[in-house]
Amino acid sequence: MERFAERSREAIATVPVVSSTSPSSSNYQCKNDLLKECILYGSVLKEHEEKLLQRLRGLCDPGQHSFNEHEMDPDVTVRLRRKFGGPDANSFQWHFRYMGAAEPDVHCPTIIRKSIDSLIYSSNMMEFVKTLGLRMDYEYLTKGYLFTKGNIKIIINNITRTEKIGTYDPNVLKPLSDSLLIEMSVALPDTKEYMTTAKALRSFADQLSPICDMQKVEYWRRLQ
């Protein structure tokens, strides 16, 4: 798996990049640069969604962006995402993200990991994935909202899965759970000190309590 991940990282780093309009395409990051990401995760029951939105509208920058996207994950370190549905959807344009392993800093209040983001065009994404030596683990559709607070991104995901791979008709789509997935992150240059940024992110995340408890989820341990 490490060999595959390294091949993926090298391939993504050479992909040409263009500007993005997708809310999940890291508008606040330098394209194709190796970045460091501070991130926290949380969840909220769907019945409390409006309370969360009201809190974020009060805390965040004016305005919010909605999105509807399709994601395929061939590996825990690689994510492929594109717009789904709507007049501006482009089935050939994908946001390709490589995510490094979390850094083992027990004193940091957030997850710290490296990432590379690119936009690529492909009429046969599965074939491209195979050339990287990977195979698809799972896919899902997500709808939600993007908020910002300075350089902090807050993404609310309402995730549905398909019971038939490659088919997205409403009759085969099922909710993944009765909760919304919340992601809160900040990206910064790889060489920059991250503890100050991580503490600021943790402080902002605490303002969502008690509606949402944002956590440093050690997901890599659960996958072992």
Number of distinct helices: 5
For the termini, the CA-CA separation is 12 Å
Which CATH class is shown? Mainly Beta
Give the SSE order as H and E letters.
HEHEEEEHEEEEHH
Per CATH, the superfamily is Hypothetical Protein Pfu-838710-001
How many discrete structural domains? Answer: 1
Main sheet characteristics: 8 strands, antiparallel, barrel
Strand element count: 9
Describe the global form.
Answer: globular
Whole-angstrom Rg: 17 Å
Q: Please bin the fraction of helical residues.
A: 10-25%
Adjacency order of strands in the biggest sheet: 1-5-4-3-2-6-7-9
What is the name of the CATH topology? Hypothetical Protein Pfu-838710-001
Our estimate of the beta-strand percent is 35-45%
Mean residue pLDDT: 82
Q: What would you say the CATH architecture is?
A: Beta Barrel
Pick out the low-confidence regions: 1-31
Which structural category fits the helices and strands? alpha+beta
Could you explain the architecture of this structure?
By secondary structure, this protein is an alpha+beta fold. The chain has one domain (34-215): Hypothetical Protein Pfu-838710-001 (Beta Barrel). Helices cover 20% and strands 37% of the residues. The protein is built from five helices and nine strands, in the order αβαββββαββββαα. The chain has helices at 2-13, 49-59, 125-131, 195-205, 219-222; strands spanning 35-45, 65-75, 78-83, 93-99, 111-121, 138-149, 152-162, 173-175, 179-189. The two termini are 12 Å apart. The model is unreliable at 1-31 (pLDDT under 50). This is Mediator of RNA polymerase II transcription subunit 18. It is found in: Nucleus. Component of the Mediator complex.
